[in-house]
Design a protein that fits this description.
GO terms for molecular function: ATP binding; ATP hydrolysis activity. The chain is an alpha/beta fold. It has 2 domains: 171 residues, 3-Layer(aba) Sandwich (Rossmann fold), CATH 3.40.50; 66 residues, no CATH class. Helix content is 34%, strand content 25%. Bound molecules: adenosine-5'-triphosphate and magnesium ion.
Length: 251
């Protein structure tokens, strides 16, 4: 069953007003349940806007967006979002950051401990449970962010350039680790990035948006085998997709 669908989705900020700005137009997309999808496009084409609407932070001005056939309206634990800036609470330890959502919903101490143990391990932070965010590197804080969203057990993970601020090596490690976590949980992921190589490495499907107003310019189905390994980045198939997508983006 298709998980997230957009139908003729258009979004105009300040619709009807003098400064109305249409950022997305006629977006028809389907993201299958359990798939890994990326959205790429030039700066300002509406990627974050699209993701925020999927999170339910605001409604599209026209058209609809559905999750399993139900119109998305408002935020919901089923749709977890990792923002570009890390959203780690500085006054909570790694473990308490990770179990924040379940704690808010009244999880028992034992349930919290179980979630903390599972997700600190899954995101590679075992041994750092009692550390404070100020004691972590940027990549580790990103891991906390990802663990915290996963700990809420969402059906859909929305990630807005989560690795954008990381150095190349850390980024590649984070990508491999993310795929491993994804493989174990098979949540639907929608991942926004500027980085073509990152999109190819991670995804089943890449949506290329045109410049503002963002429209669906191209959909690339990536058939590289899984599990993905770093040496695939140098294969002819990978490079061919990279060249094709590169030529499509205005840069
Ligand atoms: N709340 C808002 N009110 C008015 N305009 C907005 C608002 N949020 C975003 N915009 C405009 O919508 C356009 C798309 O913004 P958006 O953040 O979705 O782009 P993006 O594709 O994520 O860009 P980037 O790659 O730089 O992150 C931009 O021109 C931006 O100025
Ligand atoms: Mg953005």
């Amino acid at each position: 069953m298709p998980e997230i669908k957009t139908n003729n989705l258009t979004h105009t900020f300040g619709k009807g007003g003098e400064n109305a700005l249409t950022v997305l137009e006629d977006i028809d997309l389907t993201f299958e349940s359990g798939s890994f999808n990326s959205i790429i496009g030039t700066s300002g084409c509406g990627k974050s806007t699209l993701l925020k609407m999927m999170a339910g932070l605001f409604d599209p001005s026209d058209g609809a967006m559905t999750l399993d056939g139900t119109v998305i309206h408002g935020t919901d634990r089923r749709r977890g979002m990792v923002f570009q800036q890390d959203a780690v609470f500085p006054w909570m330890t790694v473990a308490k950051n990770i179990s924040y959502g379940p704690r808010l919903r009244g999880a028992s101490k034992a349930q919290q401990a179980e979630i903390e143990a599972k997700w600190t391990e899954m995101v590679g932070l075992k041994g750092f449970e009692d550390r404070w965010p100020r004691e972590l590197s940027g990549g580790m804080r990103k891991r906390v962010d990802i663990g915290r969203v996963y700990a809420n057990d969402p059906d859909v993970l929305l990630m807005d350039e989560p690795f954008g601020a990381l150095d190349a090596q850390t980024k590649e490690r984070m990508q491999s680790d993310l795929l491993q976590t994804w493989n174990q949980t098979k949540k639907t992921v929608i991942f926004v990035t500027h980085d073509i190589e990152e999109a190819i490495f991670l995804s089943d499907k890449i949506v290329v948006l045109s410049s503002r107003p963002g429209r669906v310019h191209h959909i690339e189905e990536v058939s590289l085998p899984r599990p993905r390994t770093d040496d695939m980045r140098l294969t002819e198939e990978f490079l061919e997709i990279k060249r094709r997508l590169w030529a499509m983006l205005d840069h």
